[in-house]
Each structure stands twice: as C-alpha cells, then as structure tokens.
Amino acid sequence: MNHQDIPPKPASPPHTGSLPRVPSGGNGSAPAPESVTWSQPLPEPPPRRAPNRVTFWKVFFVVVIVAVAGSLVWLAVWLNSSSGADKSAADAPGVLQTTATAPATPQPLPRDGVAPAAYAVGDCFKDFDPEALASTVVSCDTGHSAQLVATYSYPAAAAYPGADPLKAKALEACQAATLGPAANQFHLNYQRSFPSSTSWDSGDRRVDCYVTADTGNVITASVLP
Predict the structure, then answer these.
(1) Over 50: is that where the pLDDT of 33 sits?
(2) In 3D, which of 167, 153, 128 has the Cα closest to residue 204?
(3) Mean local confidence (pLDDT), 111-130
(4) Same domain assignment for residues 86 and 173
(5) Residue-number span of the structural domain to which 86 is assigned
(6) Would you state the pLDDT for residue 101?
(7) What is the pTM of this model?
(8) Do residue 73 and residue 162 come from a single domain?
(9) Residue 132: strand pairing partners
(10) Residue 207 lies in a domain
(11) Which of 53, 150, 195, 210 has CB atoms 3.0–4.6 Å from 177's, for a disulfide?
(12) Tens digits of residue pLDDT in 59-80
C-alpha cells in the first residue's frame, strides 16, 4: 500500500459550535425521520375563459356571407354562360342551299304525298300548290309546274322573326339561286314559301324559293345548272 495516499488525521475534532443542537429524547438521541419531503404550494390554475359568444357569431356570419357571395358569383357566371350560349346559337348564321342534291328525292318517281319538310333543292312538282300539306314529286324531264331552286334554314334556336323578315329572306334565297339555260325556254315566276308562327313552333325553320309556271305542267326540264 502506498502510505502517501492516506490522508493525515486531523489535529483536532471539527468545530461544531455553529451547528444547531438537537434536543435529546428519552434515550438521549432524536430518531431520524423516515423521509423528508420538500414541497411548495402548487400555483392555482388560471381561470377558464368562458366561450366568447360574440366572436363565435361574428365568425359564423362571415362564413355565411362568404358562402352566399360565392354562390351568387357562381350563379351569375352560369347564367352568363348559358345566355351567351343561347345567344350564340340564336345568332348563328343560317344555311343557304342553291345546289340540287342527286337525286333530290328518293327514287322511284313519281312520288305522291311528299310533305313540305321533305322537299329538297332540285325537286320538281306536278300541279304544285305551295299551301298544300303534300305534293307529288316527279322527274324533272316530265311535265311539272314548279321546281324548288333555293332554301334558307334558320338556326334551331332562332326566335320567330315575323312574316315580313321571312319574306325578305326568301327573296334573298331566290336572288341567290343560279338558273341554267333551260330556264329561258319557259315563262317562269319566282314563288316564295315561309313558315307560319305555328309551324315555326313545330320546328319549321326553312324558307323556300320556287320557280313556277302559271300555265300548268309545262316545264319539261330542270331549270338548275
């Protein structure tokens, strides 16, 4: 053992004059407490705040106002887009046709009881009556009294324009029609046909232009080129 590692004994007992005296008990000594607990009074919890009803209702009303405003904006956009689409459809240009299809009416001919909605540019009619609910379509190289030479079809969404504008549009269709050399062989007139308000409501959107002969079924050739 290294004796230099052993501390020397104190020269005198430690001074105890400043230590408190422990009162003696029955046996001359005080029993040590089993345990010592150091405690401090716990801070009281902060009082709970009552719900602020004014703030709640303010937030609620703000949310409602924002929702209503958003709905109104969406409705305005939807109505504007819908009205714009309807307006575009109504303002869309119609379709002018002055060229005969081949054949204009399904074969064989003659074909009786053809309704006006089924008339096609180039069709020739025997004993033609523009106000009739049906006509007889014949081959144009046989005697006939009228031929459909031009049509103008309004857009499906268009509003009824009235009789005078329809007459004017039918005249424009007649003026746009190009007739061939055979038209010079006959005494012909232009005749217009257009829908009434009742037929318009039923879906009729077409005005027609015919060349007609006043003397009956005397036309024996197509007057279109």
Answers:
(1) no
(2) 153
(3) 94
(4) no
(5) 63-92
(6) 73
(7) 0.60
(8) no
(9) none
(10) yes
(11) 150
(12) 777 777 877 776 776 666 556 6
Where a domain ends, among 71, 92, 113? 92
Distance CA 197, CA 7 (A): 130
Q: Are 221 and 194 in contact (CB under 8 A)?
A: no
Whether 66 and 73 have beta carbons less than 8 Å apart is answered as no
- List pLDDT tens digits, range 159-169: 999 999 999 99
User: Is the pLDDT confidence value at 203 over 60?
Assistant: yes
Residues 68 and 105 in one domain: no
123, 104 in Cβ contact below 8 A? yes
Number of domains, the chain: 2
Same structural domain for residues 73 and 150?
no
- Residues 6+ positions from 76 with CB-CB distance below 8 Å: none
pLDDT value for 77? 58
Same domain, 180 and 101: yes
